[in-house]
Write a structure and sequence with these properties.
The protein is globular and about 60 Å long. It has helices at residues 2-39, 55-65, 76-92, 120-130, 132-141, 145-176, 181-191, 199-212, 224-227, 237-262, 275-300, 306-334; strands at 103-105, 108-110. Helices cover 68% and strands 2% of the residues. It has one domain. The protein has 335 residues and is mainly α. The longest helix is centred in the N-terminal third of the chain and has 38 residues, at 2-39. Strands 1-2 form a two-stranded antiparallel sheet. Helix 1 (2-39) packs parallel to helix 11, helix 2 (55-65) packs across helix 10 (237-262) and helix 8 (199-212) packs antiparallel against helix 12.
Length: 335
């Protein structure tokens, strides 16, 4: 009986997280269009619903109802699977993210986390490296030179920035002595957020995360001015929408990782009401802070050249993150 109850609890948590993330995707699409329009002194969506709130629904209906064109000559199985890979890998991040304190229902303690792996950071890095397969497979299977170039750019970009991202998290793991995401949050609740002592690692992580998401100014796999639309040039209808949704789900996921590892997770002043609800609210406030920062970058900076992108990853971020690991080790040995 306990086994059935435990399976049911896990299923409820998975469905709840999936539902929340899927609801947030259209919210972020609307938010990005409004935020960037405000920053660039434009109007933004304002016709469909009050303040354009129904515009994401109109966009979704448009994409679903458009003809699903599959170009001749594509590698059809891979071409079809690639958008699903983009969505699934982005959603897998949330398996190890703790969203708040444990709650008690009918005498049973339920953690607001699907799985507390003792190798949580390694899991995050593994999943982030799998995400590039969607872009590479989509570009390669399209049998288009523009799409293929976008996929190749993404693979090279992933290799360089994945190294910097992994090294930026080593300082956090050294400070805590654990790779568990929940243990890292609890350590920050007791001793303070890591964004202070690990500010260098935090800055490197933020830059590498934006590059991993293929967001401005690092969106070279798309590069409309050079590659038409990059890796998704030959996609249409719902398959294109899945790539688009995967980007926003990934943005939420990276915000959740940054919140967990550097910004104290669910910690924050207790709001009136249940303590666990306050933690969940503060968690998502911090995640939206990361999302807003990514949108701010898109509204501010132009796309950099590809050679500048690679040079910045290999010659700046990786040496800086290595120096941060060395400095953290020296500090721990002395103090």
């Amino acid at each position: 009986m306990d086994l059935i109850i435990n399976i049911a609890i896990i299923a409820v948590r998975v469905i709840a997280i999936f539902a929340v993330v899927m609801i947030l995707v259209p919210v972020l699409i609307w938010m990005e269009r409004r935020v960037i329009a405000y920053m660039q002194d434009r109007v933004g969506p304002n016709r469909v619903g009050p303040a354009g709130l129904l515009q994401p629904i109109a966009d979704a209906l448009k994409l679903i109802s458009k003809e699903d064109i599959i170009p001749a000559g594509v590698d059809k199985p891979v071409y079809i699977v690639a958008p699903a890979v983009a969505m699934v890998t982005a959603l897998l991040f949330f398996a190890v993210i703790p969203f708040g304190e444990d709650i008690t229902i009918f005498g049973r303690t339920i953690p607001l986390q699907i799985a507390d792996l003792n190798i949580g950071i390694l899991y995050i890095l593994a999943i982030s490296s799998l995400g590039v397969y969607a872009v590479v497979l989509g570009g390669w299977s399209s049998q288009s030179k523009y799409s293929l170039l976008g996929g190749l750019r993404s693979s090279a970009q992933m290799i360089s920035y994945e190294l910097a991202m992994g090294l930026s998290l080593v300082g956090v793991a050294m400070a805590v002595g654990s790779l568990s995401m929940r243990t890292i949050v609890e350590a920050q609740i007791e001793g303070g957020w890591f964004v202070g002592p690990q500010i260098v690692g935090f800055v490197v992580f933020m830059m590498a995360a934006i590059a991993e998401l293929n967001r401005h100014p690092f969106d070279m796999p798309e590069a409309e001015s050079e590659l038409v639309g990059g890796f998704h040039t030959e996609y249409s209808s719902f398959k294109f929408a899945m790539f688009f949704m995967g980007e926003y789900v990934g943005m939420i996921a990276m915000g959740a990782v940054a919140t967990t590892l550097f910004l104290g997770g669910w910690s924050g002043p207790v709001l009136p009401g249940a303590a666990w609800l306050s933690g969940v609210i503060w968690f998502f406030v911090k995640v939206f802070g990361f999302v807003f920062f990514a949108m701010w970058l898109r509204a501010t900076f132009p796309r950099i050249r590809y050679d500048q992108l690679m040079r910045f990853g290999w010659k700046v971020l990786i040496p800086v993150s290595l120096a941060n690991v060395f400095a953290t080790g020296v500090y721990m040995a002395v103090v």
